[in-house]
Amino acid sequence: MLVTDFVQFIVGTYTDSPSISEGVACIMLDPATGELHRDQRFVPQSLLAHRNPSYITSTKHGLYTINEVERSNKPELTFVNTNGSNALPISGDYPCHLDVHNRLLAVANYGSGNVSIYQLDEMGNPLDLMTELYVEGQGPNLDRQTSPHAHQVTFLKHTNQLAVVDLGSDRVYLYDYDKDLYTFSLTQNIEMPAGAGPRHLVFNHDETLAYVVCELSETLVVMAKIGGLWTKNQELKLLGNDVSQEAAAAIRLSPDQRFVYVSCRAQNKISVFEQRRENVVRLGTYDSGGEFPRDFVLSHDGQWLLVAHQHSYSIVSFRCNRETGAIYPSGYSCEVGSPVCLIEKRSS
Question: Quick one: DSSP state of residue 93?
C-alpha cells in the first residue's frame, strides 16, 4: 500500500513526568488492516518540546495547540504551519480545549473556568486576545465543583453561537456572537443534573440534537433544540448499574449519526448507544484495549475507531460494524507517551 493511502492522525499528549512523550505526535492507520505506526516526519520541530499539548485541532491553514499548565507557567496558544509558528499567551489556568470557526478561536481554561476568545487573520494566524467569557458557579461535588471548570468550547456551524461545557457548575452555556463586531452575549444557560459534571458534547449534523457526556455521574444526557432553545429530554447511565467512578471522558458521533460512543476511563470501557427515532438506547460496552481511555476518534468513513490510553501509553485500533455499531479489536496498537487527544488530520 502506498503511504498516501494511509490515514494520518495527530496526537496530543502530556509530557510531564512520568510521561515519555516529547510533545505532539503523529500516527498512520492502514485502512485495510487497522495497523498503526508512528510517523516521525510530520511533527514540526517547534512542537517536539512543547509542554503538555493536551488538545489540538487543525484546519486547512495549520495546526493549533495549547499548553495545559497553570497560569504561573505561562500557557500559550500555538499555531503551526509550513511557514513556521507563532504563539500568544493564554490568560487562564490549565487550558484544555479549543475550537476554530469564522476566523474566531476559543480556548476553555479548566482551572480558572474562563474562556479566552481570539481573532484569526485570513491565513489562520491568531491575533490578540479579543475577550474573556466567565460565569460564576459551582456544584454539589465538594472535591470537583467548588468553582467553574470550562472543559469544552464548540462553535456551532449553522448559527453564530458558541457552546461552553462547564464541569464545575453543571451547566452548558450558549453564547450568541456577532462575527463582524466580535461581541458575545449569553443567551441560554442549560442546567445539567446536579453533580453530573458535564465534560464534552457533540451535535448532530443539523444541530437539532446534542449528546453530553457527564464525567462525574458517568451518564449521557441528550438535549433537543425546540423552538430555538435547548431542552434535556433523556439521561442514560454509561455502564448500566455500575457505581460511578467519576471518570467518563470522550464522546463521538458516528458519521451516519446513528451511533454515539463514550469512553469511561476508570473502567477501561467504550459504551455504544443508538439513536432510534425519538430515543437513545444503550447497545453495549466494550473493553478499550488499554488503561485509561482518555480520548478516541472515529475515522471519517466510520470504519475505524482509535483509542488513546493515557496510562498504558498506547493507541489501539478497532474495526467498526457500521450496521450494528459494534467494535472489534484489530490486534494492532502503537506506543505513544501519555496520549490524551486524537484527531484525524484533514485539509479543512
Answer: S
Angstrom CA distances, 38 to 27, 271, 328, 334, stand at: 4, 27, 22, 7
Say what the pLDDT of residue 4 is. 60
pTM score, whole prediction: 0.96
Which residue from 253, 268, 264, 277 is spatially nearest to 325, judged by alpha carbons?
253
Q: What is the pLDDT of residue 50?
A: 83
Per-residue DSSP letters for 307-341?
EEETTTTEEEEEEE-TTT--EEEEEEEEE-SSEEE
Q: How far apart are CA 200 and CA 294, in angstroms?
A: 12
Q: State how far Cα 283 lies from the chain centre.
A: 23
Between CA 12 and CA 73 the distance in angstroms is: 19
Smallest CA-to-CA distance from 317 within 303, 302, 329, 335 is with: 329
Interatomic CA distance for residues 175 and 223, integer angstroms: 17
pLDDT score of 348 more than 50: no
What confidence tier does 41 reach under pLDDT thresholds 50, 70, 90?
Answer: low
Phi–psi pair at 177, nearest 5 degrees = -135, 150
DSSP state of 142: T
Q: Taking the C-alpha atoms of 78, 82, 83 and 86 in order, what is their torsion angle to the nearest 10 degrees?
A: 0
Q: What's the CA gap between 53 and 46, in Å, rounded?
A: 12
pLDDT reading at 28 higher than 50: yes
